[in-house]
Amino acid sequence: MLFWHAGATVAITRYAFRDDRMDLRFLVLGALLPDLVDTPIGLAFYGALGSVRLVAHSLLAAGLVMTIVVLRTRRGRPRKRWMPLAIGMLLHLFLDAMWSDPETLWWPFLGLEFSPAGQATAGAYLTSILSDWRMWALEAIGLLYLVVLARRAHLERPEARTQLLAMGTVDAPIERR
Q1: What is the DSSP-derived secondary structure letter of residue 167?
Q2: Residues 14, 175 contacting (CB under 8 angstroms)
Q3: How far is CA 163 from CA 8, 31, 62, 131, 168, in A?
Q4: What integer pLDDT is reported at residue 66 of this predicted model?
């Protein structure tokens, strides 16, 4: 799920941290990273693994990324730039409701097996996912938020797009309450 993870992660993070300068590029990369890593591997080896949620969908992976960021960066800009990667990965686990797949979430602490996807073949898995109306509804919600944010940030303007691509920020102030 592309738009759901990107949109919901940006929305949750912007309103939880209220940081207008957080690098959204790294945040979205972190939000998509578990699927970018696990899905191709899981589909290629579906017969042996029985799942597309593998190591990158575990707390171990997100925790390792966060630990590397903390150990390899100093306080200030470098850490502020890279920490959204780990935050995005953690929010991906939350948005995937990984607590319902404890074998994968807590891998390898509950064993070396991953939570099964429930379909016999990769084709059956893809068919079930693509025909699930809930997936399409969540994708629409994520896309809607991203469109609203793009309009508020005036991303139709070249300078606003350049700012997003170069610095990872948008000029769409977060309302303080």
Answers
A1: H
A2: no
A3: 21, 21, 28, 37, 7
A4: 95
